[in-house]
Amino acid sequence: MTPIRLRSLRVRLALWGLLLLGVVQVGISLILYLAISGWLEDQVNNTLRLTGNQVSLLLYNADEPQNPVDLEDVQAQLANDDLATQSFLREKRFFIRLIDQTTGDILGSSADFTLPVTPLPATGEAVFTTLPWSEAAGTGEMQLYSLPLPYESRYVLQVGLSLAETRTLQESIRHLLLLLTLFVLVAAPLSGWFLANRALVPIRAAVRAAAEINETDLSRRMDSAAAEIELEQLVQTFNAMLHRLEQAFQRQRQFTADAAHELRTPLSIIQTGLEVTLSRERQAADYQAALVSIQEEIQRLAHLTDALLLLARTDSRERPLQADPVHFSLLLHTIAEQFDPTAQEKGIRLERAIAPDLWLTGDEGQLIQLVFNLFDNAVKYTPAQGLVRISAAMHESALQLVVEDSGPGIPAAQQAHIFERFYRIDSARNRQQGGFGLGLAIAKRIVERHHGSIQVVSGTGAGSRFVVTLPLNPHLMRPPDHALIDPSSV
Question: I want to staple 320 with a disulfide (CB 3.0 to 4.6 A). Which of 59, 238, 472, 478 is the partner?
Answer without folding.
Answer: 478
